[in-house]
Every structure is written in structure tokens, then in C-alpha cells.
Amino acid sequence: MRQPKSAAGKALVAAQNAALERASSERGEQLVWSEAEEAALERAGSTVDRAEDLRRLLAAELKAEDPNGNKVVKYSAEIRALDRLVVQLLDRLAPDEVGPVKSKRHQRAAQARWNRRAQ
Predict the structure, then answer these.
(1) pTM (predicted TM-score)
(2) From CA 51, how far away is CA 91, in angstroms rounded?
């Protein structure tokens, strides 16, 4: 797996790997990331790197004598989109669950359908 460059990206990957290790010790067996989870974790780390680069550009633009409002808005929007992507990618990781990750929202909807009372 390619490692992130920024401190924030490295911290994110390290925290997720630590969560996997905790789950391994709680279960008493060695858990590993699946290929899909490893790809999601790698993508999340590189996305955090890109967001950090944009944060630096945004900070530089805001420190300018006459900041370009158009650039500020575009940088801010891209940072929000990257932050949302990181959350979505991390949502695919489930170090304490066995098997494919299931959407909590979809599970609730399915339970509501199956547990209806007969009318």
C-alpha cells in the first residue's frame, strides 16, 4: 500500500491500522484489510494529502493583500468535497466486523420491512 505524504494522511492510516490491531486483539485472531478495504484506506490517505495541499493554498490566498474570492470559494468547495470523500471511504472500513460492510441505513430499512406487524 502506498503511504500518504502528509502528517494528517499518515495519522489517518495509522489510526485505522491501530483500530484493526485492537479488533484483532479483542477477537483473538489476526485480522487483515481486504483488498477493497486496503484500496479505500490508501485512497483516503491520498485524499487527505490533497485536502492538506488545498488548505495550504487557501491559507496563502486568505493571507494575500487582496484575496481572490473566486479562488477562495473554489478551494473551500473542493476541501469540503474531499472531506466528504474521506468520510465515505472510511465508512467502507469495518475492522471490528466480519464480512462485507453493510449500510446501517439499509439495514434499518430492511428490518422495518421485515418486522412490520400484520394488519
Answers:
(1) 0.73
(2) 18
